[in-house]
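To whoever is on call:

I kicked off a structure prediction for a single chain this morning and the downstream step that reads the tokens threw a length-mismatch warning. I double-checked the sequence; it's 287 residues and nothing unusual in it as far as I can see. Pasting both halves so you can look.
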Amino acid sequence: MSSKLIAITITIFCSILLPRATAAETVLDTIERTGLLRVAIREDAAPFGYLDAGGNIRGYCLDFFALLRRKLTQFLQRDIIVIRLLKSNASNRFQLVAEGLVYLECGPNTISTEIQVPNQIEFSTAFFISGTQFLIQRDNRQRINLDSNLQDIAIGVIRNTTTEQYISDRYPLAEQQQFQGSAARMRGVQTLQQGRLDAFVSDGILLIAEVERQNLPLQNYILIPEQPLTCDRYGMILPANEPQWRNFVNSVIESKESEKLLSRWLGSLIADTRITEEECRTIVDSK
């Protein structure tokens, strides 16, 4: 077997203590020394990171990690780089990076100055744009008037997200039900399907992807409003004060290979999210 064979080992850890870099080492130095690429992925955010029917992690972010590893082997001229994968969620995603357990967390992380994040982290360049929308059952459309205060309307949100804060600020009289943990979005959509919520609110791409992942009939659901209420740029979470690492990750995000990965993973969702993406890009570009 050729000594140039590149091995990929992906090990999933729920919680683990990993060797830290020394103060003098950069992230790239540590990867070159150890041969370990420590990253984290969501398992509740299809199509970016999620569990399939067999309980296996899938999604754009997983393929992005493989692309990142290939680019690193070329850049560092290192034959073997092993991917170590941790599970992240909306509650721990910032801390995983801030505490040095991973060098990168990939998921639907809104780049915003309106939320508090640890000083030890920063965001990559944006790799996707989405926006806040309400997922409702089509038969319930007349009950939801977004121009009202939504008093007595049962709305589901995921805890510790920008969406939770947005709904609290804009619709304080709504009956908010919070979901948390790795199964938050799945349980929220299930609760909506069971009729115990009037709406579940999140980013449009994530809502449609979750409906599709649960094999629910798409024709029974709609997203409102057609133009999203917010425009959220997704960035990967990186350690602060690591300009070489940030620039390297950004170069991979902006590569043609990464664009092809997004197109492949969006697949049938492209038609459902095109209006959202185009509207958001228009707003973002005009700022």
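Update from on-call: the warning came from a stale cache, not from the record. Cleared it. Sanity check on the structure: Residues 10-129+233-273 form a domain with the D-Maltodextrin-Binding Protein; domain 2 fold (CATH 3.40.190.10).
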